[in-house]
Prior knowledge:
By secondary structure, this protein is an alpha/beta fold. 23% of the residues lie in helices and 30% in strands.
Amino acid sequence: MRYKLIIVGGLETNCYLVYCPGSKECAVIDPGAEAGKIVPVIAEEELRPILLINTHGHIDHIGANRDIKDKYGVPLLIHAGDKDLLGKMQNLELSLFLGSQDSPPADRILADGDEIKIGRGKLRVLHTPGHTPGGICLLGAGFLLSGDTLFFEGVGRTDLPGGNQKQIEASIRDKLMTLPDDIVVLPGHGPLTTIGQERPANSLSV
């Protein structure tokens, strides 16, 4: 599978289009804002969205869910631990700043170990709580969509409601640092990295 990165919104959220080059089937991952930036890329690449996936339920990752779902009629997937965040206006000032809308409810609830098929490829769900109770990472062939769990030389904050420092440490240590060094990490914000680069650089990797 392949992926395209689109940076959206005032908090510069990384939205990803993960797709099968053969079938052009595509999953839209974390459309946090600015559907008007995402839709043209889908058209330019001649992709066919079949799924909408949130790595977690914070407003900067779900703000354009409604626009994308209305445009393409695709099911929305999120982990059970964050499904109740979708219908809430979490922060009115931030939502206005980002131009976010309330999200539709989830159509499918994800669990650890689930496999999500996209054309001839697939993503495997890794439940990685800590940033939020229902935070997930998505493991593809050679890459990991890490949401706000793991960043370039950093980790997700745990001081927001539902955050848990011990959980995020365990998620990174037990779920992510067991992956091969050459896995490319596609985080929810900021530059790409690799598991190998984060192993010595990240204080929570040991």
